[in-house]
Design goal:
Structural class: mainly alpha
Strand content: under 5%
Largest sheet: none
Radius of gyration: 34 Å
Length: 576
């Protein structure tokens, strides 16, 4: 067997020498590059056996030996394609010194090889020789194709420069190649791409605008500009750009898709829905567009339309698992719990975790806690890498069901194997508070903060609990201020700040924080805090109105129930 393989390899190399095919294999063990007749014929037998030895070494994964043999063959045969294959072996070895040797030979044999010049430029840039690297890159651009594919040449240079670790070197080289107002739009576009990737958004925006001044109909450049404006936080400007572009190119799918996504970012769900609907009209079989429409319809509480879109996706087997998950949510929202269970059980694949967790939550709400926990335990055997996440879900279900001690035991057991896990410590701390164990809560939260000083949720929980259940109000204020600096728009943190101000007797300072928190979150505890402060400020009518509106939505809330006596409201919702 070995002899026949050996003879076959010899015959293969001889055929290469005689016939001269073309191509560069892209992986080790592939056949060697094509050999043309040597420019200055040497001993043919030496060349044959050198190439053969290189080929066999490459097949066996000995890239160092293959490199030496191909390099020797390239020198012997004076064939640049053999030098090219030596370069490939050096790349496998990740050896810049060998790579430099092979590239030098390649350029000696083929001075105008664009591929060789590209690698040459990268090596020079890595060594810090910017002048030489720039010279090689300019040679690449001079030799590369022009015309319709010109932009691809510049983009290829950007991709090439990504192999240089120092981002400053990459940027300096690209800006030396292009960057002036008189430079071709293709080069400016590629430069803007690089600048955007380095988060130099103002520069990227300026270059995009220069490109569009030269080529106003270039959709890719317009799309890049919109993306950059979005990253700069200039979403309204991005919207204006897209609207202007769509006026002149209303049938552009990339522009309309970008517009729809931007409207999503702006939370203009109705506008986004209109754009996706227009996209679907032109491409009714596109599953991504239909999926987006289904999610938007669900967000806008249009359950009928959402169900229609997800049923189409489920029937056509396009995103069927995700469609089953959302159909389960729709059934649950309609109160069709048995149907929701069926849909959640049908969801598999990447959505399996979310579907089963939702199923367990549904079981728990129905009072079927044992089935809920069984669902989670079965899921842990299927997705063991999510075991800790499932512990946290199980703990939440136990706490919501009032099984606080069982939840605490669950967290204790999980922390034996993961003693410093912040999520487990945080969950155990919240459970300890519910059991009245402020000391245990404080101990766990301080453990989190020792390892993660900027853990905003731990800071907020510690501050709020101290403000609510102790007289350490100044200390509580300090923790909440740190949390608010980290999460200035968090309803939970705003509520904590309002509550600690109230506890400090600063009613007027408390009110704006609680109003902001209430505007963002309908949580009955936040509402109760706002109502209590309004009452203390003698705004009784407003306090009662807000309480009654919240009671209609949360008739079982213990936080709202607690305020009945204060507000003089009867059990039936009436009052003084």
């Amino acid at each position: 067997m070995k002899n026949s393989l050996y003879i076959g390899a010899i015959l293969f190399v001889v055929l290469l020498l005689v016939n001269g095919c073309e191509g560069l294999p892209g992986r080790p063990g592939a056949h060697p590059p094509v050999l043309a007749a040597p420019a200055r014929p040497g001993p043919t037998s030496d060349l044959v056996f050198t190439v053969l030895a290189a080929e066999l070494a490459g097949r066996e994964g000995d890239h160092a030996q293959a490199f030496e043999r191909y390099l020797a063959a390239a020198r012997l045969g004076r064939d640049p394609r053999l030098a090219q294959w030596a370069v490939q072996q050096a790349l496998h070895l990740k050896d810049d010194s060998r790579l430099r040797e092979a590239v030098d030979l390649w350029l000696e044999l083929a001075p105008d090889s664009v591929a060789a010049l590209r690698i040459d430029a990268v090596l020079k840039a890595r060594k810090g020789d910017r002048r030489a690297a720039l010279k090689a890159l300019r040679r690449v651009l001079a030799l590369a194709q022009t015309g319709e594919g010109k932009e691809n040449v510049y983009i290829e240079v950007v991709r090439l420069l990504s192999l240089v670790e120092d981002s400053r070197v990459r940027l300096d080289l690209m800006r030396a190649l292009v960057g002036g107002a008189g430079d071709p739009p293709e080069g400016l576009y590629a430069l803007a791409m690089l600048e955007a990737s380095l988060r130099l958004y103002p520069a990227a925006e300026a270059h995009c605008r220069q490109v569009l001044a030269k080529r106003p109909q270039w959709q890719e450049a317009r799309t890049l500009l919109v993306r950059v404006l979005g990253l700069e936080g200039k979403k309204k400007a991005a919207r204006r750009e897209l609207e202007r572009a769509l006026e002149s190119a209303p049938d552009s799918r990339p522009l309309r898709t970008a517009y729809a996504r931007l409207l999503l970012d702006l939370k203009d769900y109705r506008g986004a829905r209109r754009q996706f609907a227009r996209l679907l009209k032109g491409h009714p079989d596109d599953p991504d567009t239909r999926f987006a429409l289904g999610v938007l319809a669900l967000e806008l509480k249009d359950l009928k339309a959402a169900q229609r879109h997800f049923e189409v996706l489920y029937r056509t087997d396009e995103k069927a698992d995700q469609a089953a998950f959302y159909l389960g949510q729709i059934a649950e929202l309609r109160g069709h719990e048995a149907e929701a269970v069926d849909w959640f059980l049908k969801a598999d694949g990447p959505i399996l975790f979310d579907a089963r967790v939702r199923l367990a939550d549904l079981y728990a709400k129905q009072g079927r806690l044992a089935e809920a926990l069984e669902t989670l335990h079965a899921l842990a055997t299927r997705i063991p890498e999510r075991a800790l996440d499932l512990v946290l879900v199980e703990g939440d279900l136990l706490r919501d069901a009032g099984h606080l001690k069982q939840a605490l035991t669950l967290y204790d057991r999980a922390l034996e194997g993961h003693p410093d896990n912040p999520d487990l410590l945080y969950a155990r701390a919240l459970t300890a508070v519910q059991l009245g164990r402020v000391d245990a809560m404080e101990r766990d939260l301080r453990r989190i903060l020792k390892a993660h000083p900027d853990h905003a949720d731990a800071l907020n929980a510690l501050g709020y609990t101290l403000a609510d259940q102790t007289d350490r109000l100044q200390e509580a204020l300090g923790y909440i201020q740190r949390a608010l600096a980290l999460k200035p728009d968090s309803a939970a943190v705003l509520d904590s700040m309002g509550w600690v101000q109230y506890r400090l007797g600063r009613l007027h300072e408390a009110l704006p924080y609680l109003r902001r928190a209430h505007a963002q979150d309908d949580d009955p505890e936040i509402t109760a805090h706002l109502v209590e402060v309004l009452w203390k400020l003698d705004r009784h009518r407003q306090a009662r109105r807000i309480w009654r509106e919240a009671w209609k939505r949360h008739p079982k809330s213990t936080h709202l129930k607690r305020l009945r006596g204060l507000l003089g409201i009867s059990r039936r919702g009436g009052g003084a």
